[in-house]
Amino acid sequence: MYGVSNLAGRGGWTWYTGSSSWFIKVGIEEILGFKIENGYLIINPRVPESWKEYKIRYKYKNSIYIIKIKNNSMAKNVFSNNNEKPPKIKLEDNNRINEIKLEI
User: Fold this and answer.
1) Total number of domains in the chain
2) In this structure, are strands 97-103 and 77-80 parallel, antiparallel, or unpaired?
């Protein structure tokens, strides 16, 4: 933390420390629920009920994954390219745009 008058209270080196890693870990993995493990995309969001929907665009090698999450407490369905899938999806380098729709 800086103590000089024009910079007082600011933390200038936070993005050079572990805080950026924690931002990714907490924000993307734990809140948005977006994790990659052993070549699989795992979607397990923990967002507030007030969030109606959100979208993640992820580039995997030569493929694009567009993940649309709709917050609907009545449903628990995952759809990938219009086919029902479990919330653990094998990532494929298929040179395509892959759409995944999830209702939580």
Assistant:
1) 2
2) antiparallel
Structural domain span for residue 27: 1-31
- CA dihedral (19, 23, 25, 29) in degrees, to 10, reads 180
Question: According to DSSP H, which parts of the chain are helical?
Answer: 19-23
Q: Which residues pair with 58 in a beta bridge?
A: 65
Q: What does the pLDDT look like over 40-95, one tens digit per residue?
A: 998 888 888 889 999 999 999 999 999 999 987 665 566 666 666 557 889 999 99
DSSP 45: -
CATH of the domain at 42: 2.60.420.10
Six-digit token string for 1: 């933390």
Map residue 1 onto helix, strand or coil.
coil
Q: pTM to 2 decimals?
A: 0.72
Handedness of CA 58, 45, 48, 70 (dihedral sign): positive
84 and 57 both lie in a single domain: yes
**CA of residue 61 relative to chain centroid, distance:** 17
Alpha carbon distance 55, 70 (integer Å): 9
